[in-house]
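Thread title: Can someone regenerate the structure for this chain?

I was given the following input by a collaborator and told the matching structure tokens would be attached. They weren't. Posting the sequence so someone can regenerate them.
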Amino acid sequence: MSDSPLEELEHHEHAEHAEHAAHANDPLISQVTFTIAVLAVVAAVAASLETTESDAAIVAKNDAVLVQNQASDTWSQYQAESVKKNLYQIAADEAGPKAADYARKAADEAAKGGPLKAKAGAFEKKRDEFLEAAERHELRHGRLTIASTLLHMAIAIATLAIILHKRWPWLTALALSAAGAGLAVWAYL
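Best answer:
Regenerated them for you:
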């Protein structure tokens, strides 16, 4: 199923051109209609990959936000433990009857800080990985958008070769399609 009714009409129009070419026995028309059929498939693949990359960029950004929230929560927990440690340390420094107990609690709170700091750092590293992936997907999406546009332009210009019974629009369409296909491949290099 296609994404829009216009794409369905476009595919129907290509089928009509192919049928017309079969009856005309004109080699140029046969070549152009075959080219249009191939370009329609390549354009559909490029458009599908474009959508996939866009979706992947959104998912990666969402994952980055979720991991950033986990990092923030962990840093908040680290700060709370640090405040408790400092309060116990102040109480221990007052040298009252519970000074030794407060010193032990301060040490316990200090021991909790190291793993929390490492855990928050790990979340931030994972966040950065998701953001890098999102950037990669956005770059691919942009290139695939241009590639898809070039391929659709090539289809339209190739159709002019049939209407005008001239070879130059077909050659122009071939050049545009090569540029579009090359750009689509470059998106993944």
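The helical segments are 5-24, 27-93, 99-164, 168-186.
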